[in-house]
Design a protein that fits this description.
Blueprint lengths: L2 H43 L5 E9 L10 E4 L5 E3 L5 E7 L3 E5 L6 E4 L6 E4 L10 E3 L5 E3 L7 E5 L1 H5 L5 H4 L7 E5 L8 E5 L12 E4 L2 E3 L29 E7 L16 E6 L9 E11 L23 H6 L12 E3 L5 E3 L6 H4 L3 E13 L3 E13 L6 E16 L2 E15 L11 H7 L8
Parallel strand pairs: 1-7, 13-16
Antiparallel strand pairs: 1-4, 2-3, 2-5, 5-6, 8-9, 10-15, 11-12, 13-14, 15-16, 17-20, 18-19, 20-21, 21-22, 22-23
């Protein structure tokens, strides 16, 4: 081996060692980078987003600051409440959704972008009105805070299932309220009792209050109506148009109506009439209700024996007149002599369709309502005509209703309610077994008596 060859081999060995060292160094560097990369990535993702402060004021529809409204970043617990002036300041990330809410108002949501000086106006949530009831003297309270029973019925319940008498319309709508009406047709009176009779001799009917004013519902006995007859001339409730009713609140028991004194001892029925609404445009309302009435309970009367006594049929005018209300005669069949002296068949006659007719009741009402800055008003007129199921009997009624409220001061209001009704009755049926009670007269006739 020459000297040059030995140098060449030495250089090749040094090159291999250097190459190995370079490779090892490269591997170490790559390994270090590989192990440090995840740590670097984690640090890159943990970048804190910069928050922005959103400020503003929460007011109601009248521009009055809402104190204690909740202002919260939606989906988090980051939030504040408004101060005495309705102001708030909340730091949230850019693009976050802020929810503003308060009891009795509709919640609102806004998207944050660093706004300042915002004015958020909350609208009243009218759906929550049902949770508030009107008690004695017009006091409004939460229904869950009352220590007595009360029931509210909306005015639409009286217009859909209409009855000419508002008292009769309460039947079946309120638990614990018993309603009974006289069989005197349209314009007749009704008897309403809450939770049964409290007195054996006194008046057990509740106190009626219309728009805060006590209302007399005494039955008119001007023609001597009572146990032994007379005509039922109606009561106060028969003069109220169901289309004018906003709601009816029934206060049950003495505890509910204690503020009305002894007059409310049998409970109270608070009637609220319709009026204009602030913030609503002028409204014109027109209603027409057409009802047909027909006898549906004919009862089951005997159809075997006819007029007469002792098993004998009348064969003379005197016998016919003396047995006009007696059904103890002979078996039906053949002929007999009537009270006019005429011979006619001694057969069963169904007088129900011959006497009663189909009654028709038509009620038309129109109203206009509206409001201004300080006034709300509603003016309505109505016309009701009724052709009774009794022949030659009818009722006509015309009414005018006015409900106006004027705000004199912030806490001083002037309310004017007026209701005028003109009613005309024809052929009014009498009560009990009086001569004018056509229903009783028909029932007393024998099976073969022809009322025509």
């Amino acid at each position: 081996m020459t000297k040059n060859e030995s140098k060449l081999l030495s250089l090749r060995g040094i090159a291999k060692v250097s190459a190995f060292c370079l490779l090892f160094s490269a591997f170490s560097v790559n390994a270090t980078m590989a192990t440090s990369a995840p740590a670097g990535s984690a640090l890159d993702t943990q970048v804190t987003q910069q928050g922005k402060v959103v400020t503003g004021t929460v007011v109601d529809e009248a521009g009055i600051p809402v104190i204690g409204a909740n202002v919260i970043q939606k989906g988090t617990t980051n939030g504040v409440i408004t101060d005495l002036d309705g102001n708030f300041s909340l730091e949230v990330p850019d693009g976050a959704v802020i929810e503003i809410s308060y009891i009795g108002y509709t919640s609102q949501e806004i998207t944050a972008s660093g706004q300042t000086g915002l004015q958020v106006k909350l609208a009243e949530d009218t759906q929550k009105i049902d949770e508030v009831v009107v008690t004695a003297l017009g006091i409004k309270r939460q229904s869950r805070s009352l220590g007595y029973s009360t029931t509210q019925v909306g005015g639409e319940d009286f217009t859909m299932a209409r009855d000419p008498n508002l008292g009769n319309a309460l039947s079946g709508k309120v638990a614990g309220v018993s309603v009974s009406g006289n069989a005197t047709g349209t314009g007749g009176s009704s008897r309403v009792v809450i939770r049964g009779n409290a007195s054996m001799t006194g008046n057990n009917m509740p106190l009626y209050v219309i728009d805060g004013v006590p209302f007399s519902n005494e039955i008119s006995f001007s023609s001597g109506a009572g146990q032994w007859g007379g005509k039922d001339m109606g009561d106060g409730l028969s003069n109220i148009n169901p289309d004018d009713i906003e709601s009816i609140q029934v206060l049950k028991g003495a505890a509910a109506s204690a503020l009305y004194g002894y007059r409310g001892g049998n409970g109270a029925i608070l009637i609220t009439t319709k009026s204009g609404k602030k913030g609503k445009p002028i409204s014109i309302e027109f209603n027409n209700n057409l009802t047909f009435n027909k006898i549906y309970d004919y009862r089951d009367f005997q159809q075997v024996y006819g007029q007469g006594t002792m098993g004998n049929r009348p064969m003379s005018v005197d016998a016919a007149r003396s047995t006009e209300q007696s059904s103890w005669g002979d078996r039906l069949g053949g002929t007999h002599i009537n009270f006019l002296g005429n011979e006619e068949p001694y057969e069963y006659i169904n007088n129900w369709p011959n006497f009663y007719r189909t009654g028709i009741n038509n009620t038309t009402s129109a109203s206009i309502s509206g409001a201004g800055d300080k006034i709300t008003y509603r003016f309505g007129v109505s016309n009701m005509t009724d052709k009774s199921i009794l022949p030659n009997a009818s009722v006509s009624q015309q009414g005018i209703n006015l409900n106006t409220t004027y705000d004199i001061l912030k806490n001083l209001h002037l309310t004017v309610n007026a209701n005028y009704v003109f009613e005309k009755n024809k052929g009014k049926a009498s009560l009990s077994d009086g001569n004018g009670n056509t229903n009783a007269s028909l029932l007393y006739r024998p099976a073969n008596f022809d009322i025509r």
